[in-house]
Each structure stands twice: as C-alpha cells, then as structure tokens.
Design brief:
With 398 residues, this protein is α+β, with helices and mostly antiparallel strands. It folds into 3 domains: 152 residues, PAS domain (Beta-Lactamase, 2-Layer Sandwich), CATH 3.30.450.20; 82 residues, Helix Hairpins (Orthogonal Bundle); 150 residues, Histidine kinase-like ATPase, C-terminal domain (Heat Shock Protein 90, 2-Layer Sandwich). It contains 12 helices and 13 strands. The strands form 3 sheets. Strands 2-1-5-4-3-13 form a 6-stranded antiparallel beta sheet, sandwiched between helices. The structure holds adenosine-5'-triphosphate and magnesium ion. The site of adenosine-5'-triphosphate has 23 residues, from helix 10 and helix 12.
C-alpha cells in the first residue's frame, strides 16, 4: 500500500543522505495518516487484531456498532497496546463467544449475524466476519469487519410483506363474495318494502301492517350487522402484523406453553405428548405472536377431538431448519377442506370466523417460515411449521 517511491527508497536506505531519509520518513508518515483517516471514515466497522487477538487498531464505526466495555476506552487513551484479548473488552456475550471460538477453532473466514438490543429498546442486526490479515504472504493477524445489516433485514421484511399482500387479491375476492349475500338480501327486502308502501299509498293511503314493516326492517338491520362484521374481520386479516423479532429458544417456549395448558387438556380427556429438541439455536421470533400460533392450532385440534384423543408437539432440526410438528388424533379433513383451510373466512364451524389459520399463516410468513398440513379423514391432522435458524458461523470459503 505504501507508494512506489517509498517502497523503492526503503530498499536503498543505506545509500541515502540524512535529508533523503527524513523526506522518506515524512512521506511514510503522510501516507499512514491519510490511510488512517480513510479507515476512520468508513461506515464499516473495522478492528485489526494481532495473531494473539490483541487489538492493534479499531475504527470509529466499530466503536459505534459493537458495545465495548469502559475498560477498552480507558486503556485505549493510554495509547498502549491493549493488554487483553479482544473478547475481554466486548460487552456482549454472544459476540465475545463468537470471537473466542474463532480463535480456538483457528478457522479463517467466519461470519455470523447478531441481534443487539440497545438500551433505548431498538433492535439492531449486525454481521461480523473475521478474515486473516495477510502480510508478505504470512498471516499476521485478524481483520474483524462489522456491518450494520438492520436496514437490509428490514427491507427483507418489507418484501416478505409485499408477497403476503399479493394474496390480498384472493382475500379481496373472498370478501366480495361474502358481501354479496347480505347485500342481496338487503336489496330484496327494500324492494319488498317499497312495493308494500306504494301499494298502500295507491289504496287507502295507510302504511302497511306494522308487524310486516318491522319484520322486514329487522332483517335489513341484521344483514347490515353481518356486513359490518365482514368488514371488521377483513381489516383484521389485512392489517400488517407488528412483529418484534428477538432471539428465543422455541423449544423452551413450547415447554412452558404445554405445562400451562396441561390441566385443561386433562379435563378435556386429551393426552399431551411432547418431544422437544433441547437447547436449540435461538430463532428470531415474536413471542406473543408465536404463542398465538400455538393457541390457534391447539384450539382447532381440541375442536376436532370432542371425544378426547392425543396432541403431540414435536420439535426437531432438519436441513438447517427448525421444525415444529403439531399433530392430533381428531376428525381430520377431506381433501377439499385441507386445500382451503388457510383461506380467510373458510370455516366448517357454526360459529367459527375462519380467520384462525389465516392469522397463523401470516405470522409464520412474518417469521420467514413455512407451514404445511397433512390430514386424513377420521384419523387426524398434523401441522408442520419450519422456521429459519439465523445463519450461524458459516465458512465463507465454502
Ligand atoms: N386440527 C384440525 N382438525 C380438523 N380440521 C381442522 C383442524 N384445523 C383446522 N381445521 C379446519 O380448518 C377450518 C379453518 O380453521 P380456522 O382456524 O382458520 O377457522 P375456524 O377454527 O373454523 O374458526 P376460528 O379459528 O375463528 O374459531 C376449520 O373450520 C376446520 O374445518
Ligand atoms: Mg380456528
């Protein structure tokens, strides 16, 4: 990186006059300063460590992005080499462990995503990668790059939401269909009323029988109520979900949930069989919404098992995905029902809204996951949810 002049000059240092050496030195200092100011002005966080993981240099962005302990700032101002390995100066366990592991494993080129919660409550996503610092074909240290990927993450969420919205066309079609019936009957009863009023005016000028009028108006009112409910439900279905994704142990959440509902299941004569993946990698989920998903699935399963039965909750990892399988030994569904269950308003229940599974679907999509259903009439139903595991240390060389 040193400029060509300086490079050549250093090779001939023994033949140089003292003023030439002074010029060379000034030159190198100038180079060094301009390089330093470039590094300082980067938005990418950069920390350079020696082979034994002591910090040699860190730029301003790195201090803004990762939480350093006070100790770091104290030692840094003394202008010495920092006394300890880098992880001892970082005030975040996950990042510390990541760096420490990288040093133990002697792996080069690793990266991982992190979620940081600032004291103000905002959530930031970072990608931290480690690369070898190569100097004269030798590895002389480590370069740690810290990138703020919050915006990128948010854009991904927006795109996911837009994909969801494309199913809004379907939703609008089903609302239009729902609205048709009450509108049709309102129109019929108003016509009947008009006819009756006209008839009585043409004859004795008296209003039609009061009973008759009231009955018709009651029906019109009921239909208006029905319309109102359809609209309210529709707004509920299209409202974007406010998901706050934070790292959670999904198995632990399922366990807490199962324990909480166990008495209710016992009362309803339902056996609960849970088989959970222990200490899974943390997933990015919104706890409240996740709970809502499980509650909806449970309610459907309970409704499908009026004579009791068994609900199994199973979590496992396959192909880099975290799976949750919820099965019941209930009524099952025929193929036509199975294909329509996620449609808004689709219900086979007298007082169902048909929005339970629509909500479940929306939430799982918001988590970046998928949901599938297997069902056999008379035997039972399984919902299989797959959720992404936030990308872990991946080898960039691979
Ligand atoms: N575990 C299950 N076993 C059998 N059928 C199911 C099961 N889960 C869902 N279904 C079918 O899917 C339909 C849609 O379910 P969804 O949860 O969306 O609405 P709902 O349960 O009918 O109404 P709500 O959730 O408002 O009570 C149900 O009416 C039922 O026919
Ligand atoms: Mg339901």
């Amino acid at each position: 990186m040193m400029n060509e002049f300086a490079k050549k000059a250093t090779q001939k240092i023994s033949k140089m006059s003292s003023s030439q050496i002074e010029q060379l030195f000034n030159n190198i200092v100038g180079e060094n300063e301009s390089l330093y100011s470039v590094i300082e002005s980067l938005t990418l966080g950069l920390v350079i460590c020696s082979n034994d993981w002591k910090i040699l240099m860190s730029n301003r962005a790195s201090e803004r992005l990762i939480p350093f302990k006070n100790r770091y700032f104290e030692e840094k101002t003394q202008d010495n080499l920092l006394s300890d390995e880098i992880w001892n100066f970082i005030d975040d366990d996950d990042i510390g462990i990541f760096l420490k592991n990288a040093s133990n494993d002697k792996k080069i080129n690793v990266s991982q995503e992190f979620v940081l919660r600032t004291s103000g409550g905002t959530v930031r996503f970072l990608n931290i990668s480690i690369e070898p610092l190569v100097h004269q074909k030798q590895i002389s240290g480590n370069i740690i790059k810290i990138e703020d990927i919050t915006e990128k993450r948010n854009t991904e969420t927006v795109i996911r939401r837009m994909e969801n919205l494309s199913s809004l066309t379907n939703l609008a079609a089903s609302v239009a269909h729902e609205i048709k019936n009450p509108l049709g009957s309102i129109s019929i009863y108003i016509q009947l009323l008009q006819k009756a009023i006209k008839k009585s005016r043409d004859t004795d000028g008296m209003l039609p029988d009061q009973k008759f009028l009231e009955n018709y108006l009651d029906i019109v009112n009921q239909e208006i109520d029905r319309l109102n409910k359809i609209i309210v439900d529709f707004l509920f279905a299209v409202r974007p979900i406010q998901a706050e994704l934070l790292p959670v142990d999904a198995s632990a959440m399922l366990k807490t949930f199962a324990d909480f509902y166990r008495p209710e299941f016992e009362m309803k004569n339902i056996d609960l069989d849970i088989n959970l993946y222990q200490n899974p990698p943390k997933l990015l989920l919104d706890e409240k919404l996740f709970k809502q998903v499980i509650i909806n699935l449970m309610q459907n399963s309970i409704a499908a098992m009026s004579d009791g039965g068994k609900i199994s909750i199973h979590s496992y990892i396959k192909d880099d995905l975290f799976y949750i399988k919820v099965s019941d030994t209930g009524s099952g569904m025929d193929e036509e029902t199975r294909q329509r269950i996620f449609e808004p308003y689709f219900t086979t229940k007298a007082n169902g809204t048909g929005l339970g599974l629509t909500m479940v679907y929306k939430i799982i999509k918001e988590f970046g996951g998928e949901i599938e259903v297997e069902s056999e009439l008379g035997k039972g139903t399984s919902f299989i949810i797959s959720l992404p595991i936030p990308q872990d240390r991946k080898n960039l060389l691979e």
